[in-house]
Amino acid sequence: MHTPSGTSLPVVPAALAPVLPSRYGREQEPAPGAGVRVAPDTLPGLESVSPADAGSVWLHDALLGPHSADIVRYLSLARSTGGPVLDLGSGAGRLAVPFARHGFAVEAVDRDASALERLEGWARRIGPQVAGLVVTHRTDLTELRLDGSYRLAMLAGAMVAAVPPARRPALLREVASHLETGGALALDYTAHRLPGLIAEPRRTWAFQVPRFDGVDEWVVARQVFDLPSMSERITYYAARTGKLSTERVVLTTDKWIVDPERLAAELHSAGLHIEGRRRHRIDERTESVLLVCRTDD
């Protein structure tokens, strides 16, 4: 649901109401005319966050929720390619651990040490058979150096948007060079229509984070697109209220707007061809695109 500026957000207790950016003393409130979305199924993603902290786990999981359905598509692809599987930007194991439960050997790569600890802990709780199939590596994707070979590599959850365009060709070449014959690279990204970005370069969400630890958390998220640099920044202003106190936290994620034609050219230069493309409409200005790419040999 899109709520035009000037209308009211859902009524909530004053102590739990979302705190607008001006209350943090860092930025101004959304400009007049900027829409406020209150539907949790259209939240902007959290591909690259700094700083990470234990208290933000609930927010992180809530923002990844809309991506959860992609596990069916990626798992179906893995069944056709076989393993080993390389999960790039794995986070806390949203895909890696379920893949291991289905018997695939998975190498999970992420730059966030706390996320990898959550992944390993989850795998151990399931049992030694699953834990034994998962190997984790902490590194930034822009510095990726691989040793193994893989039947399937994944850049899921729009992780490709977290890689600077200037560094993306090297990453794609590195991944392609470690795919076995007939292997596949699967990735997804959010495709923005240019007229939509021009018409609405600033977007605002207000939502409550589902938590089950006795803390109430409300968030105002501001998404700002910068067309000259083809980048976007999302700032999350969170108010977390417990029994004794309220804390306010600011998290930011910086991403890049993906140019489909440029990405296709980079894939081709890396020795990959696009075998399949699947589109899912998010709204009238945005869609999610899933690409399946195969090695040329």
UniProtKB/TrEMBL annotation:
Annotated Pfam families: Methyltransf_25
Residues annotated as domain Methyltransferase: 85-183
Highest taxon of the lineage: Bacteria
Keyword Protein biosynthesis: no
The entry's keywords: Methyltransferase, Transferase
Gene Ontology terms describing biological process: methylation
Record-linked InterPro entries: Methyltransf_25 (IPR041698), SAM-dependent_MTases_sf (IPR029063)
Listed GO MF terms: methyltransferase activity
Protein name, entry field: Class I SAM-dependent methyltransferase
Organism: Streptomyces zaomyceticus
